[in-house]
């Protein structure tokens, strides 16, 4: 089944105002049989968004309307495409209990979700890993080196895979090499293959999936998918399911680079 399992919505504060229907029309036109709307879930109540505009995620007060609107298009297009109500949930170290509570509340209404790492902590402060090249450079300064940033990222991803977030924990791990987003400007000389293998083994042991995220192809300082082709090969050796995700934040990006990833 041709599926795009990672699509954002007009509820994204840093995305576009494109209507839900426009995403669906784009998916149907490309022959997708299934799509998942996976908006950035509200951050834990006690967590302070470290981004300048505080626009990393939707507000919890929007959740009811979010679910309602997706259910509406789900019914409207039921003959054309299977539409899933989903979320991209942030794994944030030390905020597991609040995340578990959120999932216990809204998990029953979800069909499909991702668990992703965007925030890294150092000395009681959090930083948004993928915000900008300038912020990534600042993070390098705080952590001491590019290698230390990578080390912290893969440690956080491993923790996300192993975390006990309850029965509604997402079954798919988002963009596990997102740390590569600015690699053309800030290359890392260490492969971290052992850390990646550890993550893949934990994913396999828990029968989870990986988000095969095309967005990195369209980031000029990355130019590869998340995960990279080397990691994809390792995942395939372990028969770990890879689910294509456009990570579209506007309708025109639905299905981006699908052919490059799956129809070679």
TrEMBL record:
InterPro entries per the UniProt record, alphabetical: Histidinol_P_phosphatase_HisJ (IPR010140), PHP_dom (IPR004013), Pol/histidinol_Pase-like (IPR016195)
Keyword Kinase annotated: no
Coiled coil: none
Keyword Amino-acid biosynthesis annotated: yes
Annotated PHP domain residues: 4-214
Record's keyword terms, sorted: Amino-acid biosynthesis, Histidine biosynthesis, Hydrolase
Enzyme Commission numbers on file: 3.1.3.15
Catalytic reactions of this protein: L-histidinol phosphate + H2O = L-histidinol + phosphate
Pathway noted in the entry: Amino-acid biosynthesis; L-histidine biosynthesis; L-histidine from 5-phospho-alpha-D-ribose 1-diphosphate: step 8/9
PANTHER family (UniProt xref): HISTIDINOL PHOSPHATASE-RELATED (PTHR21039), HISTIDINOL-PHOSPHATASE (PTHR21039:SF0)
Family designation: Belongs to the PHP hydrolase family. HisK subfamily.
Name this polypeptide is given: Histidinol-phosphatase
Naturally occurring in which organism (per UniProt): Priestia endophytica DSM 13796
